[in-house]
Amino acid sequence: MKNEFSVVGKSVPRIDAYDKVTGRARYCRDLKLEGMLHAKLLRSPYPHARVKALDVSRAKSHPAVKAIATIEEVPKVVGYWWNLRTEKGMKKMFMQDNVVRFVGDPVLGVAAEDEDSAEEALSMILVQYEQLPPVFDPVESMKDQTIKIHERGNIAFHVLKEYGDIEKGFREADFVIENRFVTSKQKHATIEPIGSCIADYSPSGKLSVYSSTQLPHWSRMYLAGALGLPSSNVRIIKPYTGGAFGGRCGLIHGLELMCCHLSKKAGRPVKMSFTRKEDFEATEGRHPFLVELRTGFTKEGILTANSIKIVMDVGAYATHYIGVIADALSTGVGLYRIPHVKFEGYCVYTNKSLNGAFRGYGNPQMNFAQESQMDIVAEKLGMDPIELRLKNYRGAGEIDPVFNEKILSCGLKECLFQGAEKIRWKKKSRRSSRRGKIRKGVGMSCLMHGTGARFGLPDPASAIVLINADGSVSLETAAADDGQGNKTGLVQIAAEELGIDWRKISVSDTDTDTTPLDGGTHGSRQTYCGGIAVRKAAAQAKKSVLVFASKHLNTPQNRLDIREGVIYDTKRPSLNISLADLMRKIQIEDLSLCEQIIGAATGVAPSMPPTYGAHFAEVEVDTETGGVRVLRLVGAFDVGKAINPAHIEGQIAGGEVMGIGYALTEGLVIENGKVMNSNFADYRIPRSCDIPRIDAVIVESHEPTGPFGAKGIGEATMIGTASAIANAIYDAVGVRMKELPITQEKILVALQSFNPP
Amino acid sequence: MKPFFKPKAYFRPGSLGKAVELLSNFGDRAKVLAGGTDLLVQKPSGAECLIDIADLGLEYIKEHENGVEIGAATTVRSIGVSGSLSSEPYLVLRDAACALGTPTIRNMATIGGNICNASPAADLPLALMVLGASLTIMGPAGKREVNIGEFFENIGGKNIQADELLLSINIPASRGRCGTSFQKLRHHQTSIDIAIVNVAARMTCEKQACVKASIALGAVAPTPIYARKAEALLGKKRPNAAIIQEAASAASEEVNPIDDVRGSKWYRKKMAAVLVRRALEESSRRCGIWPE
Ligand SMILES: Cc1cc2nc3c(=O)[nH]c(=O)nc-3n(C[C@H](O)[C@H](O)[C@H](O)COP(=O)(O)OP(=O)(O)OC[C@H]3O[C@@H](n4cnc5c(N)ncnc54)[C@H](O)[C@@H]3O)c2cc1C
User: Fold this and answer.
1) Residue A201 above 50 pLDDT?
2) Residues lining ligand 1, judged by CB closer than 6 Å?
């Protein structure tokens, strides 16, 4: 099977590596347009207030100020591409009022000749606020009848789903356990801060926007809708991007639309780049969850019932809330074969900066609760946690109840076996070493995560393959590469399908004027969804090539194939012509033809196959300080087929590191609406020197619907790390940490070596 | 905070005389630039010009019969790897240097900057305090000596004027057998964090008894402090677990930490006791009188 492929399954270098390593790659922040202005936002100092009056007269007279656009003129964009399905839904995306709902909510934007002047102008603006009472805690917000963050109330969304008969499930159980888990507001902490764009609104009615968005085509539609322009007049150009992780999965609150308005007013291009502080304080983060689980199971370790109740903190505006809670549902109901499940979720507004898409969507939160709960179940039964999972997981051939679809590929068992082997699960003397001041422990967790969004959201992908006269290929796709390398993966897929050298293929820039509809880079979807489109387009191009070749070589088309750029007769290989020679003939030489080969594909992927995985962690806990050191991590993932194994390993390493942060250190501290740790000194992500040995295990189950068997990977790699670390901490010191991040101080309190105040 | 720091002028004098002249000309409007790992992060608004001390020959570690002299511009990395500091009583300084920041920070950061920045959580001053170091400071009126214990005043305050330059740090040689230790607890357990509590200790021993103990703590008061009561409890005895625990508890009563995002007052106090105990255990081990 393996040797069948020429380039799929090989770790070819990144096509963008040279530009990035040599500094040639230009990110949005590096770009300059002729006559460009610089914009800055005036942000609310209050968590909840009405803007009663704005005096911009002094700022307007500042010689360098060219335009001011206020909260009364620029709508806020809420919701996501679900809304695009209907005109009514789309209208709901644009909110306009004069209320600010979190500290940092934009009140107005100023565009000036330079950043310093823009900032100076901000200090000349007088705002009269009417302060409104704020509410910060989602549980309080749910109950509160007096404080309304939005007109329709503080509950943005409520969901109740029942599978089977939950009461029957509890009756069938020998044991029932109940636990409550709390997760934190993690920030994407991308290497390039979130929030940078240039809008160039030409008086002719054409709008060009440079934005490091994950969703070029959806962003185009959002902006077209907000500004009343035909989509064809809006062009989104995505430069190189320094990481996204969901943080750029939509328009950025206060950014693109503000720049468009300012540019329209000023008649010049306008650039705005958020500082890291603004990124921390006023862009989306991961939704904090409060999860209550009640789980029933038999003596034999068979799960019979699970009641899941979630309160999710949406923040001040709702963007990705429904999808996020749906992902929690999908993992809470789909991963294990539990006959009776009740799932209830509340998405609640609070006067804090908004939450949105973030690697894993609602899965890491749910996984932390669920996989901690599984560990508690295993302990109660005296059963090996791996064995408990093996008894209960849903495998290939079974129906996923949430998507109501048959699971076609599932390598979870191999992930568990190979991961356990790598970390030497059996040999690590679990529990027995609970002596001494420094104690070691091991823990594990499982996960599944759907690839793409087909069963919940519009999820298109498209590709165009153009074969040039010299046999080289231009691939046109809007599949945005945020740094994960998916453009390289798509090149490999096209090269494999076409039978040519991958170096002969170049990929277009990500530009909505030249690339067809794409659902964006999110949901671990581009290798799968984008890959399917690219493979189809390449197959179509190949077919056209073979039609010409068949005539030229005078041999039936079904006997022809292409390998290493040579079209040959499979029965008589000496009968052949190079792709370049044939292309030159039909495109240039034959004056009666002059035809370029174009393959095009568009549409939705046939499925949403889950990626499976298992995390293993070994930690050391200092019982006197509560300090945790992660000694080792193993991540084993079923990716269907590794198109580029080095990319998968990169995702596993990166995801595990992000997971260490989620487990131990990351989380915005918000006091009275103010972010207390809006910098990397106090908001701590792990550094290279904090990273333990990480082993990546790749399992290939072959997904029949995927391109060459592939499915997603990006998000899965961080989903269960925190759960595995929490379980390892329990194994080491016997305290169950139910709240993220697990700081040393919290562990110490839990250890009760001391009495907290 | 402005993303960029744009002082109007930058000087890199080649002699001490020139440096002091520049400092007295500019006064408050000038800032001494060493490694810049504090200064360029703080971006002080009043700093119109920077005076870089890289060319003043202040980067050295000299051993002499009365001890060791370290130039103010010596990097933290050089201190961490120095052969001159690889035996007692200097291990406390070496260990503190190795615990400061990350390799990239240590390559730039200087000992002088660490002292003059006067952060209550700084690592090297604690080591210098238990070593009884003195500082040589030069100003328009010439040189003066200050004991490190008298250098820090209030939070961020220090016994050095805007027109003065720290030249060197002088550590006296030890009389008698010594054991030292440096302990640090970071806020998030990641390598780059500054301390939420740090402790330096030193014991001087005769035969099996401790004849003198010195304990300094950081990040638990507006300035680095000596734990005088704890020190007194150790005097002239052979340390055992009970004595060390008693001293550790006493030290945690001498501190007055704050509550902030990095740690609660409660936790810092508890940790002060744990770290002092560990520092005393290691010091007595390095003295050869532990375990009992
Ligand atoms: C990421 C990071 C991590 C850090 N981690 C730690 C840590 O773990 N522990 C710790 O203690 N510190 C830490 N620091 C703080 C800093 O690195 C140290 O305090 C360092 O020693 C400062 O030295 P410098 O040469 O960079 O000083 P500079 O920034 O150049 O100067 C600091 C101050 O001292 C003054 N100054 C410098 N030299 C002289 C002199 N010779 N005479 C008079 N005044 C002078 C300057 O004017 C300035 O006010 C960290 C900093 C960063 C950015």
Assistant:
1) yes
2) B 31-39, 41, 53, 72, 76, 100-101, 105, 108-110, 112-114, 116-117, 122-123, 160, 165-166, 192, 194
